[in-house]
Write a structure and sequence with these properties.
Elements lengths: L1 H5 L3 H7 L5 E6 L5 H14 L7 E5 L2 H13 L10 E4 H11 L1 H4 L5 E2 L2 H14 L1 H4 L6 H14 L3 H10 L5 H28 L1 E2 L1 H14 L1 H10 L2 E4 L7 H7 L7 E6 L14 H4 L1 H4 L3 E6 L1 E2 L4 H12 L10 E2 L8 E5 L2 H18 L7 E5 L6 H9 L4 E4 L8 H14 L4 H9 L6 H14 L5 H8 L3 H15 L3 H15 L5 H6 L4 H10 L4 H8 L13 E2 L2 E2 L8 E5 L8 E6 L16 H15 L2 E10 H15 L5 H5 L11 E4 L26
Parallel strand pairs: 1-7, 1-8, 2-3, 2-6, 4-5, 6-7, 9-10, 11-18, 11-19, 12-16, 12-17, 13-16, 17-18
Antiparallel strand pairs: 14-15
Helix pairs in contact: 2-3, 3-4, 5-12, 7-9, 7-11, 9-10, 10-11, 12-13, 12-14, 17-29, 18-19, 19-27, 20-21, 20-25, 21-22, 22-23, 23-24, 24-25, 25-27
Length: 686
């Protein structure tokens, strides 16, 4: 313990040695919150507290195990063996098992989300009169049910959030009132079914324990004998149900909670930053200590982050101070579009790699969504920059991309059964049975006849003819990018394929990206082998792209591209935050809701504070011009939310360096002498 204690700063040591009843440690980004909670547990055990009477709660099993093991590493051998760390759900399950009579769930079975969906489907079948009146899928019903219980919201509000994106108008109110009785009947039947089958879902685990603690004095008495200290990590991520669970422990044991209200960014999962922000109001006899000494970033990076929080109407009352001292000013890069942005970022990373002796893994790129970073991923693949993605769905794995690529796969390899089934069943009127029959004929005759002829024989009529012609036209193309374009045009416009409307309206922006990727490869086989097939990583000796990164078994050096919501715990020497533009920060979807605007501010704060030495932000100049025009309109008395709420309005010039990326044009030779313009040749007056 002496070694660990010597590494604590004054603020951390004060928190670790706290001798009052309840404490919230407001630990700003990079201030050593995990280290503090580890040191607190070790300090309590060294002070004579029985490790079995200390419970550590966090949000992932990995984090819980890591904290427990690091506590044990500071103690003499076996001294902390009875220390327990768990997630909220796991701990409640342990209590239910440990005290079967108390919680009354001795013979109940815990079910996973797949089991939940199966039960809900059965209930919907049994409640056909109610379910038949709804256009809601069973999974949506589960999501509504879980949201209502985790956030303690009414069914009306949960329907509004999940189905109507928080809209509040007369039409929405009427529609909710119309469907609510049917939804309520189904959810009540679902609860009854779980009870009959003796099932507990994940939310039930928290509810069973919480209900007993709130209503049964015996439950509080029994747990008070088994628990002295409750240590809660990532307190800002707790939701109302988790707070309801924690609340009785205010009178059962001593709470030590670590969190940061400025990093509460998971409201879409039900997290409520007020669990931290209003801690002293909710917890009698409690104190709040702050950790503001940052070990991660230079002061210039923290100055921008502090400025961002200071502009909030919410009083966070913290100002991060860098232990490391001064460094570079953050860089704000103005670009005209996402392709210019992607190429500039690629140039910057390659320059750092070549001339500054930085590795690819020194770079972290953050975006609001992986969908936004698809252009960047395309450029990285073309320019051979290895990367991995965190959060969101991989571009290469999206269903509509796989649908189109299935056609390219059968052109490249007529024996590809998986691709044949996917491609054929994508057509209206062809199910798996018919597709299997067509595939059988193809496999039987592929060595004797050409594929177009086989398709026309196997699929008599106009559709077979169209598919045969499409196959032939792609086969004749020599440019792989043009193959993608030909396939897209035919599959989206020329054939009666399922989901064609979705392709055209929602996903059409992805196909130019796919075309760009394809143009980087000289042959269709290389494009498929290196660029798209995840399972090809298992082939011996092949250098392929796996999970959107260059698969080099020996070399793990790669850029990380992450959503900001998946970036908690990440940090990098160079952090590049994409598109800090109006209508992105805050999002255009948030403009009518102050809570959502402020959550977007916290999202940006989390992104900025991931940087250690160099922070780069990109911004779209078209968005800036629009905001400038709106600002002028404001001065004429017109209210425009974009101009008023953009987070980087009035950003002090001394906090950042700013550049604008210019379009690059090749050098050409002009005519030696100027010619005269002749406009008369453009019109025939006869």
């Amino acid at each position: 313990m002496m070694n660990l204690s010597e590494t604590l700063n004054d603020g951390q040591k004060r928190a670790v040695e706290f001798d009052g009843r309840h404490l919230l440690v407001l630990a700003g980004a990079g201030t050593g919150k995990t280290k503090t909670i580890i040191a607190r547990a070790a300090y309590l055990i060294e002070s004579g507290v029985d490790p079995s009477k200390i419970q550590i709660l966090t949000f992932t099993k990995k984090a819980a195990n890591e904290i427990v093991e690091r506590v044990k590493a500071t103690l003499p051998k076996s001294e902390g063996n009875s220390l327990n760390g768990a997630t909220f759900h796991s701990w409640c399950n342990q209590l239910i098992v440990r005290f079967p009579n108390l919680f009354g769930a001795a013979s109940y079975t815990v079910i996973d989300p797949d089991d939940q969906l199966s039960i809900m489907k059965m209930v919907c079948g049994n409640q056909n009169l109610d379910f038949g009146k709804l256009r809601i899928k069973p999974q949506q019903l589960i999501d509504i049910y879980s949201l209502a219980r985790n956030t303690k919201k009414s069914l009306t509000e949960s329907l509004r959030i999940k189905l109507f994106k928080n809209r509040k108008d007369a039409d929405t109110d009427y529609e909710i009132s119309t469907i609510k009785p049917n939804v309520a009947n189904i959810l009540k039947a679902y609860q009854l079914k779980k009870g009959e089958q003796r099932y507990l879902d994940y939310d039930d685990l928290l509810l069973v324990v919480s209900t007993q603690l709130h209503t049964n004095p015996e439950a509080r008495e029994i747990l008070s004998q088994h628990l002295d200290y409750l240590l809660v990590d990532e307190m800002q991520d707790t939701n109302p149900l988790q707070w309801e669970l924690l609340d009785p422990f205010v009178n059962i044991c001593k709470l030590f909670c670590v969190g940061d209200d400025a990093q509460s960014i998971y409201s879409f999962r039900g997290a409520d930053f007020r669990n931290v922000h209003l801690f002293q109001e909710r917890v009698p006899d409690s104190e709040v200590f702050k950790l503001e000494k940052n070990y991660r970033s230079t002061q210039e990076i923290l100055d921008v982050s502090n400025w961002l929080l200071d502009r909030s109407p919410i009083a966070y009352n913290k100002k991060l101070q860098s232990i490391r001292g001064e460094g570079e000013l953050p860089l704000l890069v103005n670009v005209t579009d996402e392709w210019q942005e992607a190429n500039w970022v690629a140039d910057e990373i390659l320059k750092n790699f070549t001339h500054e002796d930085r590795t690819f893994s020194d770079h972290l790129i953050l975006a609001r969504s992986q969908y936004y970073s698809k252009s960047l991923q395309a450029v990285f693949i073309r320019r051979k920059i290895p990367y991995v993605t965190y959060g969101g769905r991989k571009f290469m794995q999206a269903a509509h991309i796989k649908d189109l690529v299935s056609l390219l796969r059968i052109v490249n390899n007529p024996y590809d059964e998986i691709a044949w089934i996917r491609f054929l069943t994508f057509q209206e009127g062809v199910g798996e049975v018919r597709a299997s029959r067509i595939l059988q004929k193809v496999i039987e005759h592929v060595e004797k006849e050409d594929i177009p002829s086989i398709l026309q024989n196997a699929m008599p009529g106009e559709d077979g003819k169209k598919i045969a012609q499409l196959y032939e036209s792609i086969k004749l193309e020599s440019d792989v990018g043009q193959m993608v374009d030909t396939a897209y045009q035919a599959m989206s416009l020329g054939l009666a394929f399922r989901y064609r409307r979705d392709w055209n309206e929602k996903r059409k922006g992805d196909f130019p990206v796919l075309k760009l990727l394809a143009k980087s490869y000289p042959t269709l086989g290389e494009f498929i082998g290196e660029g798209l097939l995840d399972n090809s990583e298992h082939m011996n000796g092949m250098n392929v792209l796996s999970e959107s990164k260059l698969n080099t078994a020996e070399d793990k050096d790669h850029v990380i591209i992450s959503t900001i919501h998946s970036a908690k715990g990440l940090e990098a020497d160079v952090c590049i935050v994409l598109n800090v533009s109006p209508k992105a920060f805050p999002s255009a979807w948030s403009l009518d809701n102050l809570d959502e605007i402020e959550e977007d501010r916290r999202v940006l704060y989390v992104a900025l504070t991931r940087a250690k030495n160099r922070l780069i932000m990109t911004r779209n100049t078209a968005s800036i011009s629009a905001v400038h025009q709106q600002t002028l309109s404001n001065r004429n008395g017109q209210r425009t939310d974009d101009a008023e709420t953009y987070f980087f309005n009035e950003l002090p010039e001394n906090l950042i360096e700013q550049i604008t990326v210019q379009h690059k044009f090749g050098k050409v030779s002009d005519a030696a002498t100027p010619n005269k313009i002749d406009l008369s040749s453009g019109m025939d007056f006869s």
